Amino acid sequence: MEDELLGSGSKKNGFSQFCTRVSQWYQGLVDRTVPWQKCRWFAAVLLLLGFMARILYAQGWYIITYALGIYHLNLFIAFLTPKIDPAMDFDAEDNGPELPTRANEEFRPFIRRLPEFKFWYSVTKSTIIGLICTFFDCFNIPVFWPILVLYFFTLLCITMKRQIRHMIKYRYLPFTHGKPKYQGHEEATGKVIVSPK
Description:
Elements: H1 2-31, H2 37-58, H3 62-80, H4 116-133, H5 145-169, E1 182-186, E2 192-196
Antiparallel strand pairs: 1-2
Helix pairs in contact: 2-4, 3-4, 3-5
């Protein structure tokens, strides 16, 4: 009896070791893609185009497409939103936002609620899951798709309008393009002087 228990314990242990190794291999594979931002997004766009081609060819699975679109919209809003909401960040003295408004105040970089890599990973993973769902007829629920498209674009406009108002009100840009980048250079005295590019 003890041998049977030991045998089943070693099988469980062997299976958990196998799962751990597969998980580590997968995580290493994902981690190696971090520096390849443009390639990652190119692959994600190709995957989305493949998903759309599948939907257009099969003429169905509109509920899956709608759910995927709403999920991607939520991810995009989290990508545009700061990690610490300025609306909740109040100064104890005047109950106003603490964001710097003058050049001599402390610089705080924009930190996203959803970092770029997690955004890409979630988009890719959800698109793969959506693509797999299109191979099962149980998810092909008949709906009048123009209503879903209209509702999606209405939701997109309302959500983006609210996000843009928030960005204007608290004066932040979620993108770093066009912002000054500083680089140091040495003068004859040996001092490092920092100047904008």
